[in-house]
Amino acid sequence: MGAIQKLDEQPISDELKLVRAAKAGDIGAFEQLVHRYDRNVFRIAQHITQNREDAEDVVQDAFLKAYENLNNFQEQSKFYTWLVRIAVNEALMRLRRRRPERMVSLDEEIKTDEDSMPREVADWSPNPEQLYTQSELRDILTKTIQGLPSSFRTVFVLRDVEGLSTEETAEALDLSIPAVKSRLLRARLQLRERLNKYFRKRKSGDRKK
Amino acid sequence: MNCSDFLKELTDYLDESLDDRTRAELEEHLQWCHNCFVICNTTKKTIEIYRDSQIYELPDDLRVRLHSAIITKCQQKKA
Q1: CA end-to-end span of chain B, whole Å?
Q2: A43–B56: do the CB atoms touch at under 8 Å?
Q3: pTM (two decimals)
Q4: Is residue A2, in this structure, part of any structural domain at all?
Q5: Tens digit of each residue's pLDDT (9 = 90 or more) over A104-124
């Protein structure tokens, strides 16, 4: 797991204490919030924009916007969920700018049910990730997730990579809970289908693809 | 439960948010349907691999640079 930050390691009260101190003008407290969540925001931004420079800008702008609007944070949800919502909007804005030819919206209804239906039902090797070097595996995972529609990718990243609950994901993306669940299922099934060719059991004599 | 019902419930099953009765029906289906058994296991593995992956980690030097830029801008806003 290495550097992946686990959000449930910090009790909410501690987070709220920092938020309140930051609201009262304590920049050091805000800096601690940046330190706590910058890796997560960067990962989310990279997944959505698929562009390193855009992701750097999203991290800066999301935290700055959060700082400017701290007094509007009502403390009814977690600060992190509120921050993710800001970061996702910033990231989508940049994605739209970069790809004006394609409308990018989290509300888009994509007819990809066929893509989600399992076509190939081959079992995988026992530890498929060990078939590849770390860097090969990173390339495979990056390429595979980049092929998903942005609305599916975003839900998968928040829910399964960052560990937000279904309710928090719905709140961060302004989607209904059934919409989150439906996109999550399709994202998971599409990723599984696409990973088949790398991870399925090989017959002896097969070479790596 | 048939294969199409199984797919509808798969996400809630993997998230352990199914009620006891539906979970029991699904697990009964998995006992005799090899295809759904494989789909269930490989979907679970897909999630685990992405969760444990280290794609898009923030490098330390970039982290320091971003922190400094963010805090400088916040101080300017405050001033």
Answers
A1: 64
A2: yes
A3: 0.86
A4: no
A5: 555 544 444 555 566 667 788
